[in-house]
Amino acid sequence: MSLTHDAPLSPSAGRRFRAYTTKHLDELTARAGLDADERLAVRAVAQVLPFRVNSYVLDELIDWDAAPDDPIYRLTFPQPDMLPHDDVSRIADLLRADAPRSELTRAANEIRAKLNPHPAGQMELNVPRLNDEDPLQGVQHKYPETVLFFPKQGQTCHAYCTYCFRWAQFVGEPDLKFAASETSHLVSYLRQHPEVTSVLFTGGDPMIMGEGVLSRYIEPLLEVETLESIRIGTKALSYWPQRFTTDPDADETLRLFERVVESGKNLAFMAHFSHPNEMAPDLVRQAVRRIRETGAVIRTQAPLIRTINDDAATWADMWRDHVRHGMVPYYMFVERDTGPQDYFAVPLARAYGIFRDAYARVSGLARTVRGPSMSATPGKVCVDGVTEVAGEKVFVLHFIQARDPELVGRPFFARYDERAAWLFDLEPALGATHFPYEEAPPSDASALAEPAEV
Fold this sequence. Notes:
By secondary structure, this protein is of the alpha/beta class. It contains 14 helices and 13 strands.
């Protein structure tokens, strides 16, 4: 791997990281041309849902001449109508009256409780136990082959996405956080469960951690012989590519990646790209090249989000660009049933149409992508199409992963509903009274609830 910086860097490449939070919102939204009432509504939304950007996002990604309609602006800045009008008005009135922080927090928490902060029961139903004793904090295990690990120091991001289904991790409420402080219990669990072949580091964003902390989490896993792959779920390539180019520990981080690959394990870099504009800066392409030179494989994924990337051309352009730079398109997700889903969700029928049209515009190298996929309680459900069977218009679906492994890959049908935006909006078709996953409880080996997008 070459550790030289062999291409001109953007003006912001070598700057120190600087975050902008809710206290900067009024100034930033004024830059986007919002009037006073609109700015107050945005601030109200940001009392409930998290907001954080950084200098790179502001200077390199957002087209301020196009704001507030610019897709990256909408990707990172709260929108006034992301929450019900009554809830926004309630918080706005408190802000206008300069209400005590305790009163604002109480109101915000009441609104958050209505937003399904932990979909699919992931805080209660999929937390494993070591030696049948206490639950492993910050570890989730649903599918036999895969464990998710939430490192404590990785429970934030370089910037927050407005649509993020993990929003509850970032609002400062301890009861909503899910994190682990070390890996020794995880290693013990993996040794007791040789069926686990892959660990996904997630959060937040694990790449917010410095190399020294990241190494302490990853290196013990290299000694687990049954582990075949380590995945890192991150949006750092989009929001802070300096992490792999000019940050003080960028080279050491890449050497850690090399050690993972040299150990004989696959290092899968699960990069979230939500829009083609995130690939525009030269700095991103340099970061991609440096990561790939370590032997890591970069797979790309994102949810389909209304007002940001809900058209086929956007996805086709994005997938082609990823292939051009050696990355592997992996997933198009459906927006999860949490947070501002009502604002961002795309109905399944339209989602399938967007996926199909984008898929038809790319070569076979980009058709590694799967979707539109719902990470729901019974498993990962893919919408394969819309057709007519025995005179009834239906959705054709199948499980990519399932709580019950016997369901994986078996097609099933749901009544066509142009308004349905999630699995639980659907009804069985063709005279069936229930879906296959409702027929019987899953086996003991898979009786854990859906944790996250993997």
